Amino acid sequence: MNIFEGKSMKKICIVSGGSGGLGLSIAALLLKSGKDVLILGRNSEKLNKAARALNRVSQKAQVSTNVCNVGNEADVRKIGKFMEEHNIVTEYLFNNAGRGLFAPAGTATSTMIDDVLEANLKGLILLTSEILRITPEKEELTIVNIMSSSALLGRDQESIYCASKWGARGYTEALRVELMGKKRNIIAVYPGGMKTDFYNVIGRSRDLTGFMDPGEVAEKIVNAILRTDRLLVTDITISRKK
Length: 242
Prior knowledge:
The chain has 7 helices and 7 strands. It has a 7-stranded parallel sheet with strand order 3-2-1-4-5-6-7, with helices on both faces. Helix 4 packs parallel to helix 5. The chain is globular and about 50 Å long.
């Protein structure tokens, strides 16, 4: 990890799942707005490719990468330790990493459950907890939990996926109550289906005609969060037009 050496103010934005899709689009918009960004992901090759693309976005802001499985406590702790040692403070945390699963309810296994919950719920909680722990109380922190419209309603053959997202939603709501009155903003985002490689990764073929462009979804999210002045957005639901 090599984060923005030589800067007196070391405030950054963290985007998990930042090497592609929605996370990459969010990182690009943050850089354009002048925010330094750290993107997290599991695959070093994909992260390096994303960093090369993002380095062309802004001459003022900087991007850095870290290979991190947010569902692995040791990985997350290493990031926190590095940030503490180098006096780096998180301004915005975008919990965007996740994993999908489409399968009949009668086929669930422990491995399937663990894999989905690790990415969608456990990882979100671990990374949020670590950033909360190391962020000084005097510093304002905005936590953006990007979930899915599957956190709002049940869907056919998405029982495990929906369970993980509903769990993330419950965690988000409880976190908001616990941190009320402190310099901590909790924002829940519920986007619908997007044109990404999400469905290819999980091995399910699907016609994505009419699905949303991740760049346009990212604009809705970043604009709502960064351009609020005295107003604070708490929940964002994004769906495609019928």
